[in-house]
Amino acid sequence: MIPTIFTFEKVPRLTLVGAGPGDPELMTLKGLMALKAADVVLYDALVSEEILNMIPVHVPSFSVGKRAGAHSHTQDEINELIVDYAYVYGHVVRLKGGDPFVFGRGAEEIAFAEAHGVQTTVVPGISSALAVPASVNIPVTERGVSESFWVITGTTKAGELSGDLALAAQSTATVVILMGLNKVKEIMELFQAHGKSGTPAAIIQNGTLPTQRLVTGTVSDIASKASLAGIGSPAIMVVGEVVQHARALAAVTQEVATHYQ
């Protein structure tokens, strides 16, 4: 940790910015303006290289990436860095994948910063829970098919399955599962136990990026299909009748291009 050096030229402040699901064109204008006004940027591992290239060249930026099994910094260390850098540099932009308040631990960072005299602002981002299914033509709601949707973390802080999964498996809602790929077999077995073996399911890797991959099937076979296809993290799972609309990103892109020719 760097020593705290108080700056009297600039007010210490923090802006939490949601970078969106990965595609740089899905970064909000307000988020981009915050980057342009930053004195320093702390970014997560899931922020794409194209978005990192939007950081002005004169602005120092540091990776504090956290991914399953590979944490370069603990959350407590990140909290401390935010406060230290705010007093050293002035305006800290904390750049987080998706939306900072959807499994992004943004509330913890805001609370810690404010407790240490740092002014805070939040710039919402497009959540991958919505954008990634949409990118392969999956609507999370559809009239007469799905009246609601659940967004659930696949595993808890302790590495166990979320208790909400059992509740979601009993619903007719679309279920979007984040950070659960390493537990996909157990998750799908839970849905099968509630009579959902034949329910359509999809797994999307690297959603909205050129490297995006899509595997579709049913609750009973999606785990084996994903394994055979070599699907890896980061990936999102979607379970529900709306998955029947799924189309690969390349196919959707080609259809749009053909329409406007």
Automatic annotation (TrEMBL):
Keywords of the record: Methyltransferase, Porphyrin biosynthesis, S-adenosyl-L-methionine, Transferase
Source species, domain of life: Bacteria
EC number: 2.1.1.107
Ranges of residues in domain Tetrapyrrole methylase: 13-222
One GO term (biological process): siroheme biosynthetic process
InterPro entries (UniProt xref): 4pyrrol_Mease, 4pyrrol_Methylase_sf, 4pyrrole_Mease_sub1, 4pyrrole_Mease_sub2, CobA/CysG_C, Siro_Cobalamin_biosynth, Uropor_MeTrfase_CS
Metabolic or biological pathway, per its Swiss-Prot or TrEMBL entry: Porphyrin-containing compound metabolism; siroheme biosynthesis; precorrin-2 from uroporphyrinogen III: step 1/1
Family to which this protein belongs: Belongs to the precorrin methyltransferase family.
Protein name: uroporphyrinogen-III C-methyltransferase
